[in-house]
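For the sake of transparency, this paper describes our internal protein records without simplification. Because each token names a local backbone shape, the row as a whole describes the fold. One such record is reproduced below, unchanged from the form in which we store it.
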Amino acid sequence: MGAVVLAGSAMAQQRAPDRIPDTMEARVAACVGCHGLQGRGVANVYFPRLAGKPAGYLYNQLVAFRDGRRRYVPMNYLLEYLPNSYLMRMAEYFAAQNPPPLVQPATNAPPALLADGKRIVTQGVPGKKIPACIACHTPELTGREPGIPGLLGLRADYVSAQLGAWRYGTRTALAPDCMQFVASSLSEPEVAAVAAYLASLPVSGNRPAKAGGARLPLACGSQPQ
């Protein structure tokens, strides 16, 4: 009997390395095919970097995909039956990651377009009461906890598509939806300029700013004042 037990124990030990470890890294393996290892992002592809974004922002987006307020079929399908507590664990995992950034491809946008984008990002459009992007997303554009994302490492077509989604109501945030106001107030050339300028900036290793500080220029439901 003893020999049988020992043999069974040896066989179990041999099989053990084949088991997938029960970690969040293993559980979010379905995410890395599109978003890269540790949410680093992937070169020349539409899917955004997740690593280092505020956990509150990532959680809000996961809930929005699950509930259909953001519409992208693969994400809607993957998240459909996951509870809030698990979505928060996913958000916290990616928020804690800080892998080396990908090298951004050189932009071929005209200098005048980049200059217009920089002006809007850093100064806003006062005539339309649109604040500068840096007023909420921080001067380093790395975002602010708990709910404002960084804007670095994004492709121009991704930025343009998200602003368009807010404009036409296919992407929404908690009321008051400040980004819906901003996006619907920008003209198409202004959207193109902002997208081109943001896409030209490299990803930094800086973390999102802590909550608090200066009062935001707009009331945003996803970022309590």
In short: The mean pLDDT is 89. Residues 176 and 198 are 25 Å apart (CA to CA). The longest helix spans residues 2-15. The chain has one domain: 18-199.
